[in-house]
Amino acid sequence: MAKEKIKLRKSLFSSYFSTTLSISLVLFLFGLLGLLLINTKRLTDYVMENVGVTLILKENTREVDVLKLQKTLEATSFIKSTRFVDKETAAEELKMDLGEDFVDFLGYNPLLSSIEVRVHASHANPDSMAIMEAQFLKFPEIQEVYYQRNLVQQLNSNVKKLSLIILVLSVLMFTIFVALINNTIRLSIYSKRYLINSMQLVGATRSFIRFPFVAKSVLHGIYGAIIACFSLLMIFLSYQSELKDLIDFQNSISLAFLVAGIFFFGIFMTALSTYFAVNKFLRMKFDQLYY
Fold this sequence. Notes:
The structure is a single chain. This protein is an alpha+beta fold and 291 residues long. It folds into two domains: 15-44 and 175-290, no CATH class; 52-147, Alpha-Beta Plaits. It is built from eleven helices and four strands. The chain has a four-stranded antiparallel sheet. Helix 1 (2-38) packs across helix 9 (206-238) and helix 9 packs antiparallel against helix 11. The longest helix has 42 residues, at 149-190. It is rod-shaped, with a radius of gyration of 31 Å. The two termini are 31 Å apart.
């Protein structure tokens, strides 16, 4: 008798653990999806702001004029940052890219000093870049403006496609998450269908039978959400330096909404799935439980 009780406890613990683990994995993926959606704009901005504009300076531009030009550029609303590259630095960088010293081969340094400009993502589109190019050329120190026009057009096109893909993927993944949690709960309730029928036979009301199942499922959702949030936290702490440009770890409000969303989704879906699963078996007759 004692051995049977031990086996029963092990079986119940195994069922409880597997259900909680399954829900926590789904909620973990749900959290990753939420994190992706929250930082989608940051991701696209990161890509667009890596589009560089090079301002080629005239040969005899003084250093004082360059510093003044940099301050003027950085004060404009559409420029994120600037970097001055003198002739020697430009030659060294090109030498590293080519793998050989072209200055020794030519006998002189043909490169000109320049200012590398990073624009804000909202202005990294073909129309805005064309307007900026005209404004840059008005400065007497600037000889030429260079940027990859085809790359700007392609990036804008790809960002729009990426946004649509993320939207479709999010809807698809959310549907899958709902189905996974629903199936996990249904399987858990299915194993207890005879218990539900036995409680009905002794006169228990539907609400009395349903309440402990829903309450236990809510606990599954809470424990699963805790495990999912802890797993996400471990990922944040492990890869914070690598993901700092892609994920805003300082945005505590968004992260708080994400955690709240994981808990709400876990509790709501487990409770709702349990409610309908128990109702299904409450409506069944005894001979139908075998099918």
